[in-house]
Amino acid sequence: MPFTYEFKLGESVKPDEKIVFQSWIKDAWGEYHSESVPLAVLHGAEGAGKIYTNAPCELLEHALLKKGDEINFETILGKAADDESIPYGKPHALFVYER
């Protein structure tokens, strides 16, 4: 997979939204995923949620975040790779609250 990119939450969260990192979902890393998969657990203003990939990709490495770190729409979450499905013009990852 020749194209790598750093991924962030981007527009999937509000710029002033307070989000606290809880943990990585270890099974997601180092694998190619053709479907959206959860990659981390977070806590935001509306409760617990997860970060999901927003395009097919291989999750190469995650950022060195630890439980309790505050993140935002610009925080680099990690690196991913893909040949054709780099999500240009849209968030690379999505924060979805658990309902």
Brief description of this entry?
By secondary structure, the protein is an all-beta fold. It is built from no helices and nine strands.
- What form results from the Cα inertia axes? globular
Order of helices and strands: EEEEEEEEE
What is the CATH fold-level name? Answer: OB fold (Dihydrolipoamide Acetyltransferase, E2P)
Number of DSSP E strands:
9
CATH architectural grouping? Beta Barrel
What class, by secondary structure content?
mainly beta
Strand order of the largest sheet: 7-2-4-5-9
Helix content: under 10%
Our Rg estimate from Cα atoms comes to 12 Å
> Mean pLDDT, rounded to whole units?
86
**Hey, roughly how much beta strand do the residues contain?**
over 45%
Distance between the termini: 35 Å
Provide the number of structural domains. Answer: 1
The largest β sheet comes out as: 5 strands, antiparallel
CATH class: Mainly Beta
Flag low-confidence runs.
none
> Helix tally?
0
Would you mind describing this structure in some detail?
With 99 residues, this protein is mainly β. It has one domain: OB fold (Dihydrolipoamide Acetyltransferase, E2P), CATH 2.40.50. Helices cover 0% and strands 45% of the residues. The protein has strands spanning 3-7, 19-24, 32-33, 38-44, 47-53, 57-62, 70-71, 78-82, 93-97. The strands form 2 sheets. The protein has a 5-stranded antiparallel sheet with strand order 7-2-4-5-9, with no helix packed on it. Strands 1-8-6-3 form a 4-stranded antiparallel sheet, with no helix packed on it. Strand 4 and strand 5 form a beta hairpin. The radius of gyration is 12 Å and the shape is globular. The termini are far apart.
